[in-house]
Recover the amino acids of this structure.
DNA sequence: GTCTATACACCGATAGAC
DNA sequence: GTCTATCGGTGTATAGAC
């Protein structure tokens, strides 16, 4: 039994390592620019050996990586929002801070470039869980604040999508050194802009 | 001479058509997902025939398309801003309206996915004109409004990048039918959010 | 579980006939 | 200016030895 368990644990952690390495590469460079050889190299093995751990091929590997990633983000988002209490600013700052601890998501590239590469039907099947995990928690935070009368009533899907796009822009600004601050500071700045507006008031 | 001129005109317009078709495909699907065969098919010719009009190959074709596109956007942005007068809200609304008449730019995908595919040195060489054409006019509009005391002083590069990202998000929302309105209406909504904030005031 | 070797498909690009 | 034919390179995936 002990050997069996060790065997399972070893297999599990080996698979875990494959998924983590693949996730990092896919998320940083995008599906099209990461080859199976790249993943295998990062794991220190030959390209063909990778198929022992990912018998379903590249598309299936991406699907598994994608599903784990959105589950991870869903949990992180929901926890950050719940722990922040009911105030929208506190919630969005918590989301921003949590994102700052994560690898850049590149949400728009993922949705408009990676997913369509899998085919239209496949992309459609992944769009729903992606929405539920990444947009829905933020959308609900906006919708609840609007229902409570704390913010103006605006399309909450538009607000959630714009917020995720701004987080992408923050990561892009940091990578290009366009922005003057770090990711979390820039994201917090944009939270204040979205809530208070840029206009100077008397 | 007449024959010669006609010949030049015909060659010029034929090349024009190649660049327009390639631009549409590259901008909609991204560099990696558009093959030379796709471009040739859309032009009604064989893949090899396309090399008569694009002897430099795919990378060179993308560069030309890219340079024309950013020149087009630079002119459009600067004209829209100049025609709108000094008020920042009018300027951003004018930019939004002008964008609504254009094919979705997919700014973030272009910068994080298409350009790195050309190689790091090439991507670096294109980043500067892309910044000057796409970000600089908007950045300057924010900076001028801040200098005039009309808006809070925030990092203008962060604001410009975020605004372009929001325009991407608007196009994404429309393509996914997440948003409830059309592109221009959603963009105008987000301009008001950025300037006035979401918070309800007494 | 990793390796070498290789089949297969796709894409970019060139040569040369018409 | 467009075509057919073809080469070379790259990336996915499989077969089978160890």
């Amino acid at each position: 039994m002990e050997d069996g368990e060790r065997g399972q644990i070893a297999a599990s952690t080996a698979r875990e390592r494959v998924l983590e390495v693949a996730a990092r590469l896919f998320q940083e460079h995008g599906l099209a620019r990461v080859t199976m050889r790249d993943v295998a190299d990062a794991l220190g093995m030959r390209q063909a050996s990778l198929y022992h751990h990912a018998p379903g091929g590249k598309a299936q590997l991406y699907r598994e990586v994608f599903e784990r990633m959105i589950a991870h983000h869903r949990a992180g988002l929901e926890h950050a929002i719940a722990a922040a209490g009911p105030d929208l600013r506190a919630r969005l700052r918590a989301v921003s801070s949590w994102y700052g601890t994560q690898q850049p998501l590149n949400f728009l590239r993922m949705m408009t470039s990676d997913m369509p590469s899998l085919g239209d039907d496949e992309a459609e099947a992944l769009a729903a869980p992606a929405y539920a995990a990444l947009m829905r928690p933020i959308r609900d935070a906006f919708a609840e604040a609007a229902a409570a009368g704390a913010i103006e009533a605006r399309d909450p899907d538009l607000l959630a999508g714009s917020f995720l796009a701004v987080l992408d822009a923050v990561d892009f600004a940091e990578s290009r050194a366009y922005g003057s601050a770090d990711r979390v500071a820039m994201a917090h700045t944009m939270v204040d802009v979205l809530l208070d507006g840029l206009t100077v008031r008397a």
Notes: The longest helix of chain B spans residues 2-29.
